[in-house]
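Supplementary Note 3. Input sequence used for the single-chain structure prediction.
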Amino acid sequence: MRKSMYQIVTAALTLFVLGGALAGCSGTGQESGGEGAADSGTEISSGVINPETPAEGIALKDDIVIGMQSKHTTIDQMEASNTQHNYLWRMIYDTPLHFNNKTKELEPQLATEWSTDDGGKTYIFKLREGVKFHNGETLKASDVVFTFNRMEGTTSCNGLFLKVESVEAIDDLTVKMTLVDPNLDWPYMMTLPTACIQNEKAITEDPVDGPGVGTGPWKIDSYEFGNYTKLAAFEDSWRGAPNAKTFTFRYIPEDSARLIALQNREIDICQTPAAIELGRIEEDPALDLIAYEGGSLTYMAFNTQREPASNEDLRKAVAHAIDIDSIIAVAAEGRGKKATSFWGWDEYGYVDMGGYERDLDLAKEYLNKAFPDGNATLDISVGADRKTIAELIQSQVKEIGLTVNIVELDSAGISTSTTNGEHQSCLYGMGFNVYGDDARRILQPGSAVNKALYDSDEVMELLDKAAAETDEEQRKEYYKQIQENIYEHVPYIPIYFADGFIGVKKGTGGIDIYPTSHHDFSNVFVPAE
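The predicted structure, written as C-alpha cells, is reproduced below.
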C-alpha cells in the first residue's frame, strides 16, 4: 500500500496492534471472531516445531487429513462462524485485507490499497487485478458489493452488514464503503472470516454450492456434513499453489479417537487434543505437539435480565467465592492463565484489573444481601466441554451457602438457550479480536454474543466514542472505563485463557497459528512416509 494512504489510516489503526489475535471459538459454547497471532515456528531442542516452509528436497504428502472435534454444517461462510468453519473459510476464501501474525500489521489481500479521508466514515479499497475465483470468474468490485448486500439477515455476517450504510463499485477495481458511524477499526474487520468475498455469478447460478466458490488456494471438492469435507488445490490461486493436492476435514468428535487416529497414521493433524492426553503426544517420537498461548477466554455470564442473576450482590458473591487458580489447575491441567479483566489480553485497550480474589467472608456478605432469608440458588447452563468447571464452581460456592444447579446442554442447546436468554447463568467462551471495538459484540444489547444480556447506556456511549477517537490516550481511557464498569457490576466473570494445542505428524508445518484457535492451514505441509 502506498505510504501516503497508509498514513491516513494507520495514525489511529497501528495503535491497536498490541499482540495480535483477531478472535475465535471452539465448536461448543464459544463465539467466533477473526484473526490472531503467535510465531508459526516454535523452537525446541530437536529442531523447529511447525516450521514455516518445508526443508529443501523433502518429500511431501499429497493428501492431508485433519481430525476435527466438530463437524461442518455449511459451505456458506455467511451461515457459520466458529473454529471448524473458519478453518475452511481461510482456505477457500480471501478477505479484502490480511492481518500478519508475525509483524502485527495490516497487509493487502484482495485489496492492495485502502484509505479514509473523513475519520473512518468512508473507505476506498483498490482491488488486486486478475484474481480468479474457483469457477474461472475474475474478481470485480461488483462481487464485493454483492457479498456485502448478501450479508443482510445472515447468521454470521448480519452484524457486519449493520455497520454499513452503502457499498458501491466506483469501477471494476474500486470499492467505496460508507459506514453508518465512523469506525477506525473497519480495516481490521476486513480481515475477519465474516468479510470473505464471494462470487456473484456462482451464487446466482447455483444457490446451494455457489456460496462455496472463493478465490483462496483451496476449492471444495466434495462434502458430506457430519462426516467429511474434502478440498482440492486451486492451481490458479493468486496466493500460489498449496503444498498438497487434497486436504480433508474428517469429523472425529471423541478426543481419544482423534489421538488414536493420529498415532495410527489415519490422520495427519489432530485438532484440539484433550489436555490429559498431551503428554502422550509429547512422548511419541513420531509426533509433534504444537503449543501456543491461547487467546480464547472461558468466562461465566450472568443473565442480568432474569432473577436471581439480575441481582448484582449475588454476582459479586460468586465472583469472590470461586477459586480460579484451582479451576485452571483441574479443568485446564494447569495449561492456561488467569483472566484479570473482561477483555482480550492482546486486544487494544486492555487494562489489568487484577481479577476477583477469593474472599469467602466478603462473598458471604454479598450473598446475605442478595438472599437475606437464605435458600440461595443459581442455575448454571453448560456444555459438556465445560462441565468440570461448573462442578468446581458448584463445590466452591457451596462454602458460602449458595446452591448451584448444573444444567447440561449439547452444543446446539447451549447456544440457543443462551441466545434466547433462557439461562440464569452460563459458562461460555469467546476469542477477542485485536481491535478494541470488538468488545461491542459481547456488550451490545440484542447481540447473540451478549450472553449476560447486559444493557448499559454508559458502556455503549463509551464504545461509540472510542470507535471514532483518534487520540490514543483518550481512546485507551474510554476502554479502561468500560472494563471498570464490567468489573464493578459483574455481568461477566472472566476465568482463564487456556493454552492451545495441535497434535501433528512429526515435521508438519506451514500452519499459521492464531491464539483464538482459528488457524490457517492454507500453506500446511506434511512429510511423506
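Confidence is low (pLDDT under 50) at residues 1-29, 32-46. The longest strand covers residues 164-171.
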